[in-house]
User: Fold these one by one.
Assistant:
Number 1:
Amino acid sequence: SSHLIERYLGKISITSQEHIRQGFSLAIASLPSRMLLTSNSINKIIDCLFNLITITNQTQHLIKQRKDTLIALCNLYENIHLDLLSPFSNQDLINKLINLYLRCTRDYTNDRFGDSGRLVREIACTQLVRLLKLINENNENKKFLNLTILHNCFSSILTNLCSKIDDLRMVSGKALVEFLNIQFEQTIEHKNDIEKIFLNQNDIDWRNSQIVFTLIVQLLILNKYRYVTWLNCLITAGELSSASQALYTYLIIHKTNY
């Protein structure tokens, strides 16, 4: 088993082909949990996957690699987290793992195809919520999901919900609803108010910017989320009239609050 794992790690580290690294990263994360945990290589595997996501000048263009590695890391956590030998049983590693996903929700890589980083942001939002759900289902690990982590996760998803890109808004909108439906031990501030805005609607059309930004600007009344809402609506407003129109209409109606 150790020989097989070392072979996989070797393929990932030696090859110059992005698609080969993608395939082996997904494959190694799906090996039997006992094989992974008794091989003395689990920390090398985690470090290897972390390195595949790290953005440098040389790796910035490897969009597909980052996308698949985000999935592979979540697969790895799901594969081994319930085992007593799992390394994912301490706050530091959980923090490092979640922060990696949070960084990827801010991947703004631009290349000849335009904003290719949006593909990483989509996967990061989806896999972040999947990871949080898995951690929360683990009675030993869910205590690591403190309010700071949950607030940062919600704010990162909200940031992507404010996008002018319809597909990204749709993915992050679904991620936001899924996040709100997870019963964490600790509750983010204003959760009831947020649920009234987003969960009381019937099948929100997340691709419809006019509908979505009308919901988003209602968060301006909540102190904890005012800054992230302001900032991202203003960034988007320069290029998307629905964001600026929703913001303007909301401020006119609620001008006595500001």
Number 2:
Amino acid sequence: MPKTRELSEGKRAQIIVLHSIGLSQVQIAKKIKCSRCAVQTTIKRYNDTKQFKSRSGRGRKRKTTAREDRYLKQNALKDRRQTAKELTRCLIILSMAVYIYVSSLS
């Protein structure tokens, strides 16, 4: 996880323009007020993709579906003393029941 927010598309465009003019990465970093590493990464990413946009699909992927999230929330609110381990166990039982139900139809 980054320590600071990511650069806006406008700042990335400025970095590319300043780089094409011939400024060094250190000079660009001082002018834009960001780290040299951010400048270097932006230039490299632009050379690879020719875009200023952020990459999509970053971060950890979801393990639960929206339905499972609703189920967990309902059960947690129903019995506030239930531990995360108990909620997980109930969710596993529910998912197995759904699996058995679907497999019995075929």
Number 3:
Amino acid sequence: MIKVTYVAQDGTETTLEAEEGASVMRTAVSNDLDGIVGECGGSMMCATCHCYVDEAWQDRAGRRSDDEDEMLEGAASEVTER
């Protein structure tokens, strides 16, 4: 299992265990974590689940996919967002 720490806008941290290969959004939603909507179910159609990846984790998280880049052009602007 992988541990993912979610940090809310107010600074509250929640750490959840995720299965390898599971999306950050699906892990949050399946654990009823507030603040992650995932309106489209992870189809990259709405950006309601986009998140910021701490710069210290950029190498491990990997580069955004072309699909992520395209979706986030209209919703976000930082390279740490997913």
